[in-house]
Amino acid sequence: MIRAVNVFDFEAIARERMTPSSFDYYAGGAEDEVTLSENRDAFRRIALLPRVLVGADRVQTAVEVLGVSLACPVGLAPTALNKLAHADGELAAARAAGKAGTLMCCSTASSTSLEDVAAAAGGPLWFQLYVYRDREVTRDLVRRAELARCKAIVLTVDTPRLGRRERDARSGFSLPPDVSISNLERYGTPEALRWAQTSSFTEYVHKLFDPTLTWESVAWLKSITSLPLLIKGILSADDAALAIDHGASGIVVSNHGGRQLDGAMATIDALPAITARVAGRVPVFLDGGIRRGTDVFKALALGARAVFIGRAYLWGLAADGEAGVTRVLEMLRAELELTMALSGCQTVAAITPAHVSLR
Amino acid sequence: MIRAVNVFDFEAIARERMTPSSFDYYAGGAEDEVTLSENRDAFRRIALLPRVLVGADRVQTAVEVLGVSLACPVGLAPTALNKLAHADGELAAARAAGKAGTLMCCSTASSTSLEDVAAAAGGPLWFQLYVYRDREVTRDLVRRAELARCKAIVLTVDTPRLGRRERDARSGFSLPPDVSISNLERYGTPEALRWAQTSSFTEYVHKLFDPTLTWESVAWLKSITSLPLLIKGILSADDAALAIDHGASGIVVSNHGGRQLDGAMATIDALPAITARVAGRVPVFLDGGIRRGTDVFKALALGARAVFIGRAYLWGLAADGEAGVTRVLEMLRAELELTMALSGCQTVAAITPAHVSLR
Amino acid sequence: MIRAVNVFDFEAIARERMTPSSFDYYAGGAEDEVTLSENRDAFRRIALLPRVLVGADRVQTAVEVLGVSLACPVGLAPTALNKLAHADGELAAARAAGKAGTLMCCSTASSTSLEDVAAAAGGPLWFQLYVYRDREVTRDLVRRAELARCKAIVLTVDTPRLGRRERDARSGFSLPPDVSISNLERYGTPEALRWAQTSSFTEYVHKLFDPTLTWESVAWLKSITSLPLLIKGILSADDAALAIDHGASGIVVSNHGGRQLDGAMATIDALPAITARVAGRVPVFLDGGIRRGTDVFKALALGARAVFIGRAYLWGLAADGEAGVTRVLEMLRAELELTMALSGCQTVAAITPAHVSLR
Amino acid sequence: MIRAVNVFDFEAIARERMTPSSFDYYAGGAEDEVTLSENRDAFRRIALLPRVLVGADRVQTAVEVLGVSLACPVGLAPTALNKLAHADGELAAARAAGKAGTLMCCSTASSTSLEDVAAAAGGPLWFQLYVYRDREVTRDLVRRAELARCKAIVLTVDTPRLGRRERDARSGFSLPPDVSISNLERYGTPEALRWAQTSSFTEYVHKLFDPTLTWESVAWLKSITSLPLLIKGILSADDAALAIDHGASGIVVSNHGGRQLDGAMATIDALPAITARVAGRVPVFLDGGIRRGTDVFKALALGARAVFIGRAYLWGLAADGEAGVTRVLEMLRAELELTMALSGCQTVAAITPAHVSLR
User: Fold this and answer.
1) Minimal Cα–Cα distance from B6 to chain A, Å?
2) Tens-place pLDDT, residues A288-320
3) DSSP per position, A242-302
């Protein structure tokens, strides 16, 4: 078995096993990577204030998300092109999530078709959606997600354009021949095919993604599906309120892992104002910087229903395929359970803002 | 004589004399060791505001603790398995504490039986207690502490489970054949014996310690002993109030030296809210990060009656046995006395919050 | 083409191409270079709070400045002696600014005469003015700026004496024989000529610049020209108010790139109080530390109408002449446009203080 | 001439010219040298807010101190044993101070008799006093200071005991045979003589200095001299008020250059509360960390009448004797004058709290 004590060990192993440019494609952030590092540093600035003698024998990490019970409030975030990490790609991730009793959010830009991912998934699957200029493509993607029994659509709203990921520009990162955006192949756009052979994902996004996306687009999306719609990529409390006004079933506080707008606020710093404004009307989720069970605990304490991990599971995937993802999920679950036990929280519901101290 | 100017020098010598894994067992903290370093950094953030011309000729470091007069408000914290540091183990520590006119708190997990420690102790001895699933074991430990004339029971409440000490996982730390948890040998549990030959202290704790421990357990403990009961491992003012409500005779503000919940607040940062809530009803103690007389002074200024040192005395023990512990205690006493003289405090009681400035 | 992903790359190339002493003349700041680094660090302390789903398809970076429309709110700051960077000097800069649809502010201390710069400039030109002890020289410079169709006079007020630039003292920096302050040659002062052969720019400034400059001098300047007069080098809100009282048409918040008073507040830290006091009566500009489109965005969010870049364009000039300046301007414009798109701002006017968060 | 651009250069030269242990005796601070570095860091945290267009042609650094006009508000602090730096010792310092038109405060522990220092001094001389257990020694020292026409007595109150200077303990620092505490030789105490041959300055202080010093001692001192009495070593506003109540003619905010109580507040951080409490009744001075004219300016802005430099002049003395001290004083004067010109302050009186910004 891979020798790894924590998620950071998996990252070190992934770095060894991947090509430098693929590793950098995952590891890097936008421009000066200020937000990338802030996502981590901000967690460190939050201290824990544990309570004692409340019993730590029946700690339960289970949580209910949109009517589904998860064993642990840590899901797999939508990340592109998992085959860059391991030949089993998203299939390995989906199987690991299922065995861990948690959910996966499949990316539009997966390197495995969402139908295949759905077939492999043992647990609930969400589908992350980019809205395309060609609304028929978008409509078809939504229909396919419904047919594949996805439980929710997660609309990413922080990518009207792609952020400047300078590591990729320096490395000349391009897709290996055996990796492509599988979900889009059937639409046969010349652009999609061409991109498979060139490096310009930025150009691809600019050509295909719809930059005119507005709150009205959310209404349109809601009109073509009965699935719950979550809005991912919110950092402002005002936008959280607008999302609810426009019928969102949930909000994902995210800065796209520091890959879009460099300098954007760390997600855990943005969370408190958002959960205050949302006031429990819909569940709030968070991704960005989660590497430890204590990070999960801090997000829950500040009002998140659950969190998503991106790079953390990709390092496990790169290191050891499905087994690696399984171990990363189990590490975080065990660390969260321990954090809860040591903080005096038998259940996720017992975790409150009083358990943390913002400097 | 060992050449050492301050406690940090003793740490450097201990590092040379101990096996790397034993040194790391003492030196390390939980997970990313954030709390371990915060315990030190937080002291550094506090500035001293000395007063002048109040006379510095009769500085007295003496303090009364639970009716006993100590020469200095620096006691020895309960630390496990002192024979890892030096063959004389807890006996050397107890003798040094007695000669220094201060108290020692013997750990349940001592590598010398509490009876032998008590026989060696020249000064007051407290007994640190973990509550076992087998309440008869617990009851017997308390009875033995009473028979050994311990002056107080110190119930550790921050260890319903053991923290993740990753240095130990990496080093494969296990007990040398000549070191064991002496106090528990008579109970002959297979688990205890097995642990002596394996590395899984975590497993041991999970098997033997009672994770259902609650405030009701405190009531039970009080029912089986007339000794004063202190609660150790409190960081929250609410828990300090609960401890008093449940009859505690004192509170030890502690995060277990950063070895349990990583990210937990530094003890000196947690102290002011706790002493404010306790409002003098019971004495408040602190451990974690004490390496200088100025650290002791800062803790006293923020309301602690006395402090405990763990690693600081272990480095002295590892470097030079009883003589090393004696010198560490004398260093801290002399540094505290000097700090008092230079701050314009003739007595410990004269030290007030006005002598420090929190940034 | 020069391989450069961002402005920092151009700086690295410039460092290779320039003599160390000329590079240091540009790169250095006063004394301990505290303000030099604070100008950058202060931007980093400001987080962005992007808004979503407002449409990012028609992002317009255009801005109106003193009645002139610029394609982008990033102009070229007045910097001395551009021929130190490249033989084409200010001509290359002026052409690049014109092609980019933005303005250049020509320095009194340019190494090309303002008439030649004006002839090369395709866009609006401003003229930066130092007031000389000999008011006839000053009057003539203003008249020449008018004849060259400059759109504004920018009076620098932070240089009654020259700051201590210790890198220059250490390097023995002096002008190469082919570089001189072209604008002043016609006045044939012995001092000016002598300086061309010696290193003491400080002495030169002290001999020629008028240290008695006061607000009354502003009134005199306004009496001899009908051009708009901007005051450059203001960090205090009180001075901003005085500038308006004395008829200034605009204010440039500047600490001279950290080259004058070391320890002076970072410009982006000084900006909010100034824009609050100015309250829209005149446009406020900023220079100092701009290296990214996000920096431009932050300045606009805190009330600046536009920003100026000094070193940033000099690195492009040193690396690749006019083409280098063009690319630096285009980098910043593209980064700003992307920042606006990702922040939910279609126009510059849509950028507000709510888009940033001061720690 | 010694090549030095700033005071830090002189420190580097001094390090080369002195024995390591003598250099460390000057350079070091108490214990972990937290206060030593904070004295510098705290200046860096203060930003300057310069004003413009107020005229910079007639900047005057002159200041009046206790009725005497100084060319510059930077005096020489009392420092022990200047012959460790240079054979000319205090005589060189006194001559340099006089030529610079500023004052020197001669230390009780000078390596030249105060009478000889007074004869060399071209400007005003103060005498720093430690109170001895033997009050007749103290009385005689005061009388000698009067006869030597010293203008004030500066009572040091932060040294009832000597701080722990661990560099000296490590280096085994002891006095060279040709350096002694000249002022005390005539009293012929065995202790003083013995110390000249041993390393224990700490022991010496403990044996000779009077640790019972209280505010009553101040009254006694005032009864035996008509010279103005200043109290040096105050960090608390309450003590500043007490000093005035007891007749002090001035206060020196000092932490003994970080050599006494480690962790004591940086002097520039302590200054504002003290000047607020003193409210102009007596002049307030400051030492600790002054290396730049901007540091002097910041202290004046926060209410100091003048500052004293210790290590800064010692580095000049070690590098180049009297000429080195002269250059250090001139550097600081020129830097202060430049800072005033660039901040819009023609006179020292024009420097106000509005010229700085505390973070």
Assistant:
1) 30
2) 999 999 999 999 999 999 999 999 999 999 999
3) HHHHTT-SEEEE--GGGTSSTTBPPHHHHHHHHHHHHTTSS-EEEESS--SHHHHHHHHHT
